[in-house]
Amino acid sequence: MPDSVNLSNPPRSGDLRARAAAPMARFSLRGPESFAAEGVTALRLGPDEFLLLLPEGETPALAVPEPYSLVDISHRQIGIVLEGPAAADMLNAGCPLDLDERAFPVGMATRTLFMKADIVLWRVAEQKFHIEVWRSFAPYVWSLLEVIGLEYT
Amino acid sequence: MRLASGGRVDRAKPLSFVFDGKRYTGFQGDTVASALLANGVHLVGRSFKYHRPRGIMAAGAGEPNALFGIGRDEAHYTPNLTASQVMLYDGLVAESQNRSPSLERDTGSLIDRLWRFFPAGFYYKTFMWPRKAWTKLFEPRIREMAGLGRAPKAPDAARYGQIYAHCETLVIGAGPAGIAAALRAAAAGGRVILCDEQAEFGGSLLAENVAKIDGLPASDWLALSVAELQRLNVKMLPRSVAFGYFPHNMVGIAQDLTDYLGEPDTGIRGRLWQVRAGEVVVATGALERPMVFPDNDRPGIMLADSARVFVERYGVKPGTRAVVFTAHDEAYRAALALHEAGVEIAVIADLREAPAGGWVDKARAAGLLVRPGTVVTETSGHLRVTGVTLSTGEVVSCDLVLMSGGFTPSVHLFSQSRGKLKFDEALQIFVPGEPAEATRAVGAAAGAQTLAAALGEGYTVADLPDSGGGFLGAVPHGRDPATVRAFVDFQNDVTAKDLKLAMLEGFRSIEHVKRYTTTGMATDQGKTSNMNALGIVSEALGVPIPAIGTTTFRMPYTPIPFGLFAGYARGELFDPVRETPIHSWAKERGAVFEDVGQWKRARYFPNGDEDMNAAVTRECKAVRAGCGIFDASTLGKIEIVGPDAAEFLNRMYVNTWTKLKPGKLRYGVLLREDGFVLDDGVVGRMAEDRFHVTTTTGGAPRVLAMMEDYLQTEWPELKVWLTSTTEQWAVIAVQGPKAREILQHLVEGADISNAAFPHMSVAECKVAGVPARLFRVSFTGELGFEVNVPADHGRAVWEAIFASGGTTPYGTETMHVLRAEKGYIIVGQETDGTATPDDVGLSWAIGKTKPDYVGKRALARASMAAQDDRKQLVGVLTEDPGIVLEEGAHLVADPNQPVPMKMLGHITSSYWSGTLDRSIALAMVRKGRSRIGESFTVPLPDRNVKVTLTEPVFFDPEGVRINA
């Protein structure tokens, strides 16, 4: 029977911090970098940290052994999707990670830098990346991507 | 003069360019240097110090003299570009430097006549008298004369890009060794990047007319190899200089994209590559050295191999009658090449007693006159060389001198990687030794002396005679040394005499010699001078060269435009500009903003033509009389969740949290390990295991990092987790006696009457229909609330509250004044990292029975207790209520004491208080609390201001209003 967590605000994205324990039914704490189940995508950002992405108005139903911390941060950050053959090169204009598919495969997600902004970078597909960035840094990231994009038109 | 055929220039594509106002023609494939030589132009500059006429010495990166300012207008102007590295394009405009009014007639050449008064380091011994002349005469003139080139007068119109790249192998240099290394690496698998500073790959092969590689002419082998590199998906970066080697195999590469096209205004001018490589292969080749002999710097005196390159690669005849002076066999090859191009070779003077080998034989067979054991002792000519005198006594007329002292491996990048150099005694060169990074050198850079050695295993080279020799130091000339100048560093005008002077002055370390004489310090970074300088120092000191060592190689290898390092971080994109969800409302309202870190915060909201003082005075009065509304969204927020949350907070903050009930707030003080105040903020307990912690705006990342650090390294057993929620919540402060009245009707789900919701309470409810965390908290001293709503709804809720009427928007300036009237500190303003809680009157916050918290131990130190004169927070009132003190001003007891005065404290905050209709200030003063009531003086530059110390609270000291 899944535990569910009641929050006063229905979340769109939640930050889940939980201690590594025995593998569980739905979200394995020792799994791959990102995984999806029942409409919720979980990005594993650290040994005990997950970023949950889910449709607006929904609450994640978690089967995570207590204790854990689940915090709604839907309003904290904004998602930007970058798709196309130049996506990795454009990201490499500001991000120092090796984005070759062998080093950063589909499904991998991590916190990293994009010029002067902290971002979470998730490779959704070979030529598709999902960026999560705090709302006050989003205009900066977006404008940068626009300027960088001029070199790839 | 241009040869009718030969070279890699495209004679079907003529290009027009301007140099010093005169129009010339060149061809596609020319550099500015080769095009000028083709037009018979040799005079290209005036030397840095002596203003001597100078010509083109080298065909590549080592060129010290031909430094031009190039650009069609100020917005596209770059000074100090090396003519032999700039590819010619149609419409190029170049000007020479360091001459006035012209290259031919330069007034600066007066210094050359007075050269005896301007040895190295002359400025350490002159310009001392009269002292007054320094500011009016000496300094301005020296500033005019110092430096090379001029800065552009308009902002750089170009745009620049940046990229990070990763590869298994980075090969720097696409000459034969680099190309072979890249082919091998690509065949082995893995990503390969190959870069070269020149427009075409090939390096020395671009002027290789003799050798056959695997049976093919070198140029054919080159073309096939480049095609193969392409087929193997090697990332090829021409026009790309690897300028710096950084830790962990990071290499900086400056790629030119549009300069060679005349810098059109479309696209980016260049791109900065930061490449992280599994292995770096340094294939940077070797640079030819000049010979150091008297007056070796006249226009028309050039490096022998460069002269050959001008002929064989650019199809240019650099003169009509040449003297060759050499200690290396390659000069014989150059002599033959020029001879074949129709240049008369008057004589080949060889420093060596018995030169021998394939090239020497060929030269003799071609009938060229060779004088072994002979040196050049003198040259003649002013704007062009006209002749030389040999040690045999012969005077030989010529308009061209080819000199070759040998070849120095380009070990700059290898050395930048902290690899050790070792001295090859036989070859008299420094070569890469033990590496410090995953790097290796190949080819001439590694000391290879033949093309076959450069290519390595698997290739056969035919038809190319071996070549060797070389000399380091100043050539013996037998003349009176006092009358002679033999140039070592051409760009900085350093002579052999200067280096010997350095040693006479007692300098022994090569680093001192370098700085005293400035040898190797120009933009060419000693490419053609370092080794000869070492040879001269070695001989003068009687110390072998490897014992002297080399100076530190510093990036960049060649000058790089600033714009490349700025990249995208210019103008609006220099820094992220962070705005709150309510920012747009404030902007529409005409707020004046200030920068708080990266945030824009509304500082005040002027009505009409109010200045700041008028606006702030009005805003303050409005808050205390009625109600103000303030955007506090930038405050840091951390959600702390877990069964051990309270225990964690107990350990971090000075306060006790265990008994704080859900629904209650407490003002928390955070110290560092050393006991000093780091941050503060109101903390709300939302549930047994959940706290909403606030921090200062600037302190949020620091506090979160500190908390994570402790959790991960000190208390990993605690079951508590931290989440940054700074941007999750918009925060709207509603402050003033009418605050409850105004908010009440917008609040659903909570009773905010004074009885049910006393000061320092928190409730989850709805405000204007939006789920909120409603704090009853005040930073103004008035009845106040802070409405926390999810950021998306920030502006809408603000507008709903504002629409209720009766609120005045106020900014950060008013916020500062109101809190100062109440004596509330601001961390970073009253505190400076050295204030304990007691210093700022916060002892009450400390949980006295707590076993431990961060900073407790430091506060208990005997030395801390022994200090009886610590600076303490006090209020300051000026005797004249109209004077507003400057923040940072100091307090003294007696303003007439001698300077330096004993300073008792300083003003931390100072404002005009509209509430009190007089100035107020807070200060940190030694033994401040015991001095309340006493008078002091604040000495300012224009007057002394008398002040009295008071309690640090100026308004409603009982706190009646906040509990309304």
What features would you describe in this structure?
The complex is a heterodimer of chains A (153) and B (964). With 153 residues, chain A is mainly β. The N and C termini of chain A lie far apart (52 Å). Mean pLDDT of chain A is 81; it is low at 1-11 and 19-29. In chain A, the strands form two sheets. Chain A has a five-stranded antiparallel β-sheet with strand order 2-3-4-1-5, with no helix packed on it. In chain A, strands 6-9-8-7 form a four-stranded antiparallel β-sheet. Helix content of chain A is 12%, strand content 37%. Chain A has two helices and nine strands, in the order E-E-E-E-E-E-H-E-E-E-H. By secondary structure, chain B is α+β, with helices and mostly antiparallel strands. Among the domains of chain B are: 10-113, 2Fe-2S iron-sulphur cluster binding domain, sarcosine oxidase, alpha subunit, N-terminal domain (Ubiquitin-like (UB roll)), CATH 3.10.20; 160-286 and 409-462, 3-Layer(bba) Sandwich (FAD/NAD(P)-binding domain), CATH 3.50.50; 472-542, BFD-like [2Fe-2S]-binding domain (Arc Repressor Mutant, subunit A), CATH 1.10.10; 583-634 and 728-819, 2-Layer Sandwich (Gyrase A, domain 2), CATH 3.30.1360; 636-724, Alpha-Beta Plaits (2-Layer Sandwich); 867-950, Elongation Factor Tu (Ef-tu), domain 3 (Beta Barrel), CATH 2.40.30. Chain B is built from 24 helices and 51 strands. In chain B, the strands form 13 sheets. In chain B, strands 8, 9, 12, 13, 14, 15 and 28 form a seven-stranded mixed β-sheet that branches. A seven-stranded mixed β-sheet of chain B has the order 41-42-43-44-40-34-45. In chain B, strand 50 (935-939) and strand 51 form a beta hairpin. In chain B, helix 6 (304-312) packs parallel to helix 7 (330-340) and helix 11 (496-504) packs across helix 13 (530-541). At the A-B interface, strand 1, strand 5 and helix 2 of A face strand 8 and strand 39 of B.
